[in-house]
Design brief:
This protein has 584 residues and is an alpha/beta fold. The strands form 9 sheets. An 8-stranded mixed sheet has the order 1-28-27-24-19-20-22-21, sandwiched between helices. The longest helix is centred in the C-terminal third of the chain and has 18 residues.
């Protein structure tokens, strides 16, 4: 059994490699995007090829203006400059319209293949308009005309919500001919307009749900369209190469939007915040909107470049601005309206850790929860009060059953457990789901069965499997910090701490005040791999062993005592004299 008490260095991502390599020159914008999005760029290369297998490309990505513009800019850099003109020149005379071959870029419907981007389109915006005033005819081009000879980048939700517009666009692209059609079929065009030669390729961007809806609506097109994805994260594996690519990507975003770049000492807090966003030390975000938010918020605090102190100040200001709800929840605990103990010992009571997410609130935050267990003589039933009250979700119920399976296997009973137990989240008034509290519930149950008190200075998070192994959970940073804030407000004693799954170490990127407390020995974080390690830490008693008082031995002795008492009272009192013959 190995119980690992983590040092403060283990609580944040390692940035030394990045600092050592940061002096190398940055790549160009074009190179860095192609390095970070090789699959997407390869798909765009196929689309732009004269031998393209399809005129349509589906891209799994957010369909926001930032992403669409980024893909449009990439197409602009990748497509070859041929100098060719596409389209034509319309001439209106005496109430009629004629089409002439394109001669110069000044022609009213001439295009040079410039990519066009739109996150929302209406009929006239896409297809242009035809209006007649007496004998004067006014023709205005749409996005499709401007994209002639090039690529049109659209939000997939736009075409899904406007089926008629999509059907017309698909037909025109397939026929390579633009036909002038009225927006309302009940109101025909005021004049007949000749069709225009059209050479356009379409990129449709959307999330997984939008792509599924499109596949259902257009199964044949979806099957043969070119497909690729915008990769939201970069796997670094602590390799200097990807780290430098990510640095170049951040700097390219800053340059493209005229935002401040990062100074040498700023990369440590930037990477720590990036890891909190992705939830994994070996994963950094490529989301341009997340990067733009950080750069735009730090911009007022600096000039051309921001320092580590300025970036940290920005994060603290943001947290203060958004933390009203979290602070009020903490106040409820500090005022003893929600009972959470951070010192002393209690039998059958454990501090679990939860992540609270309120609809409409931008930030998830951690909050400790009190789990209690009561054991009494019974038929071996384990009652999940949350489930009974219809406040527990299916995943939580599954975690409860797995925890029970482990305990019954460990006890190696040849008959039903002579105890019944009830477990609950105290002062919980909304639905509880997830299995991240199953380790805490198991520890509360073992404490209640064995009579061993649990140290209330510690809190635990983690799910457990049927073999007792502690599995990783989500929101570990918020959970640790939520319990730390309560302990800090009540004054740190050096005995408080949190138990987390060992597999969650790679997800840690804690705030500086937690690091300082751990470094000074005022707060501890333990990483465990098995439930036995967790219960040993919480009760300061071993689970099993020879020649010593153990939790398993205490439970078995209690079961034996109950079975012995039950056998004595197996007959009704008038016939209890029969027991005398059984024992003699």
């Amino acid at each position: 059994m190995t119980i690992n008490q983590l040092s403060w260095q283990a609580l944040v991502p390692e940035t030394l490699i990045f600092q050592e390599q940061n002096a190398q020159p940055a790549s160009s914008d074009t190179d860095i995007f192609q390095q970070l999005q090789p699959r997407l760029c390869y798909g765009l290369t196929q689309l732009l090829s004269p031998y393209s297998p399809s005129d349509f490309m589906l891209v799994k990505s957010p369909a926001t203006p930032t992403y669409l513009s980024l893909i449009g800019a990439t197409v602009r850099k990748m497509q070859p400059e041929t100098g060719s003109l596409y389209g034509g020149r319309y001439q209106a005379q005496k109430g009629s319209v004629t089409l002439h071959p394109v001669a110069s870029p000044e022609d009213n419907f001439a295009a040079c293949g410039e990519p066009q981007v739109a996150d929302w389109i209406e009929h006239e915006q896409l297809f242009g308009s035809v209006r007649r005033y007496a004998d004067e005819i006014d023709l205005k081009p749409g996005l499709l005309h401007h994209a002639n000879g090039g690529v049109l980048v659209l939000s997939l939700r736009t075409v899904l919500l406007q089926p008629l517009l999509w059907l017309r666009l698909r037909q025109m692209v397939a026929q390579k001919r633009f036909d002038w059609l009225p927006a309302d079929e009940a109101r025909p065009l005021p004049v007949s307009v000749p069709s225009l030669p059209l050479q356009v390729k379409v990129v449709l961007c959307g999330d997984r749900d939008a792509l599924a809806d499109f596949q259902e609506m257009e199964p044949d097109l979806a099957e043969f369209a070119i497909y690729s994805e915008y990769e939201e994260n970069l796997q670094t594996d602590n390799d200097p190469g990807p780290l430098l690519q990510w640095r170049d990507w951040v700097q390219s975003i800053a340059s493209a939007y005229n935002l401040p770049s990062a100074k040498q000492d700023a990369w440590t807090p930037v990477i720590r915040e990036a890891v909190r966003y992705t939830g994994d030390r070996e994963t950094l975000p490529l989301c341009p909107e997340w990067l733009l938010r950080q750069l735009r918020e730090v911009a007022p605090l600096c000039d051309a470049a921001f320092s580590g102190a300025e970036f940290t100040q920005m994060l603290e200001q943001r947290a203060w601005r958004e933390n009203f709800l979290a602070e009020r929840m903490q106040d409820e605990i500090l005022l003893n309206q929600i009972l959470i103990e951070t010192e002393g010992e209690r039998q059958g009571q454990v501090n679990a850790l939860s992540v609270v997410e309120f609809p409409g609130h931008p930030r998830a935050f951690g909050e400790p929860s009190r789990i209690s267990c009561v054991v009494h003589f019974g038929d071996g039933e384990f009652t999940d009060i949350e489930r009974k009250a219809e406040l527990g979700g299916n995943i939580h119920a599954k975690g409860m059953m797995i925890m029970q399976s482990f305990l019954m296997a460990e006890l190696e009973l040849d008959q039903q457990l002579p105890f019944s137990a009830s477990l609950t989240f105290e002062q919980s008034y909304s639905e509880v789901d997830g299995d991240s509290a199953s380790a805490a519930e198991l520890c509360a149950l073992i404490s209640a069965l064995s009579g061993a008190p649990v140290n209330q200075s510690l809190a635990i998070t983690g799910s457990v499997d049927q073999f007792g192994r502690i599995q990783p959970v989500g929101g570990v940073n918020e959970k640790v910090e939520g319990f730390f804030r309560i302990c800090e407000q009540r004054e740190l004693t050096g005995k408080q701490g949190v138990i987390i799954p060992a597999a969650n170490i790679r997800h840690l990127s804690l705030h500086q005040d937690v690091l300082d407390a751990v470094e000074q020995g005022q707060f501890s974080i333990w990483a465990v791999e098995h439930a036995v390690e967790a219960i040993t830490l919480l009760t300061a008693q071993p689970w099993d062993g020879e020649g010593e008082n153990t939790l398993l031995q205490a439970i078995q002795e209690r079961i034996a005592q109950v079975n012995q008492q039950e056998s004595r009272h197996r007959y009704p009192w008038p016939l209890r004299w029969l027991n005398w013959f059984n024992h003699n």
